[in-house]
Design goal:
It is a single chain. With about 350 residues, this protein is α+β, with helices and mostly antiparallel strands. It has a domain at about 10-45 and about 135-200 and about 285-340: FAD/NAD(P)-binding domain, CATH 3.50.50. About 30% of the residues lie in helices and about 25% in strands. The protein has helices spanning about 20-30, 45-50, 55-60, 65-85, 100-110, 135-140, 190-200, 250-265, 310-325; strands spanning about 10-15, 35-40, 50-55, 95, 115-120, 120-125, 130, 150, 155-160, 160-165, 170-175, 175-180, 200-210, 220, 225-230, 235, 240, 275-285, 290-295, 300-305. The strands form four sheets. Strands 4, 5, 6, 13, 14, 15, 16, 17 and 18 form a nine-stranded mixed beta sheet that branches. Helix 3 (about 55-60) runs antiparallel to helix 4. It is globular and about 65 Å long.
């Protein structure tokens, strides 16, 4: 992340304070831009998540191509400097795959060039790390010059050389705007072409459970569930339910997760007390976020990371900041260009 750049500085309004919006805000602030973050407040998909920065197991689980694995690896590499600059703490691995499918996971990790070792039936990798989402988001906010403005964006319009956002409490204006609104529908007033871009995003509901019981020292994944540390307790997750946007915890889904987690851990977890939480994230048809210029002057996107918001946050922030400064997009970030869906 450059401390400064030769590009003219802009005033940027970022709509959305999830991990993509905050990482973009931090990157732009580091480059000297004046940034305001607008968000309705409360929990979001980023704060509900497990905070995994997991290029290795994500690539293995999805049977990623070498090109996709290289992108995830590059995104992970950015976190070293980004965490140092923003004060975010990274919890090192190893991360573990346990149980059925281990041989295949190990083979994929090896083929894609990730670190892999075996301990009995477990498959381990040291390439994956984790953050505490709520603490990490607090650190990202602290790295900004001003905290987010707690208001809800209702509509947006281009007026001359500026963008105007109507909120539930007033009006905000800026020279440029970044939409980091997760899986939300396009705001009224957006150019039709940008609304169409956002229309390709599929909402994905994710349910995850938090418990005061310590379940594992590190992330342990397996068929149908994972467990992970969280403060003095643990997490059990998580579902991927395309098309669902309801936020009420589903106890039947929770029971299924607990049963799967019990199989992964080799002990009964079905009777522990769990606080179930739900977040809705967005996904594009190719599973990568939209990050960068839209083709409309002063309008940029930081949207739809599927389940890899924490992993891809700094890369998305870099791609959006490069777009705002009219820099050539880094080769590894070209796959995130929102305009790939224009056709």
């Amino acid at each position: 992340m450059p401390e400064s750049s030769p590009f003219p500085k802009s005033e940027i309004l970022i709509v959305g304070a999830g991990v993509l919006g905050l990482c973009t805000a931090v990157e732009l602030t580091r480059r000297g831009h004046r940034v305001t973050v607008l968000d309705p407040g409360g929990a979001n998909a980023s704060s509900v998540a497990a905070g995994m920065i997991a290029p290795a197991l994500e690539a293995a689980i999805d049977d990623a191509t070498p090109e996709r694995a290289a992108l995830l690896r590059a995104a992970r590499a950015l976190w070293t400097g980004f965490a140092r600059a923003s004060g975010v703490s990274l919890k090192s691995g190893p991360a573990v795959w346990r149980g059925e499918g281990g041989e295949e996971i190990a083979a994929r990790l090896s083929a894609l060039g990730f670190a892999v070792e075996r301990q009995g039936e477990d498959v381990l990798t040291t390439d994956d790390v984790q953050v505490e989402p709520e603490a990490a988001m607090a650190r990202l906010i602290a790295a900004l010059r001003t905290p987010p403005v707690v208001e809800t964006a209702l509509s947006v319009a281009r007026e001359g050389e500026r963008w105007r956002v109507v909120t539930d409490k007033g009006v905000m204006e800026a020279g440029g705007i970044v939409l980091a609104t997760g899986a939300a529908k396009a705001l009224p007033g957006l150019p039709e072409a940008v609304a169409r871009l956002m229309g390709v995003i599929t909402p994905i509901r994710g349910q995850i459970g938090r418990t005061d019981v310590t379940l594992a020292d590190g992330v342990v994944r397996g068929q149908g569930a994972y467990v992970a540390p969280a403060g003095s307790g643990g997490l059990i997750g998580a579902t991927m339910e395309p098309g669902r946007t309801d936020l009420a915890p589903d106890l039947a889904v929770g029971r299924t997760l607990l049963e799967a987690a019990s199989r992964v851990m080799g002990r009964d977890l079905t009777e522990i007390d769990v606080d179930w939480r739900v977040g809705v994230r967005g996904a594009t048809p190719d599973g990568l976020p939209m990050a960068g210029a839209t083709g409309e002057a002063g309008l940029f996107l930081a949207l739809a990371p599927r389940r890899n918001g924490w992993l891809l946050g700094p890369l998305v922030g870099q791609a959006v900041a490069d777009g705002i400064e009219d820099r050539a997009m880094a080769d590894i970030a070209a796959a995130l260009d929102p305009r790939r869906f224009v056709a």
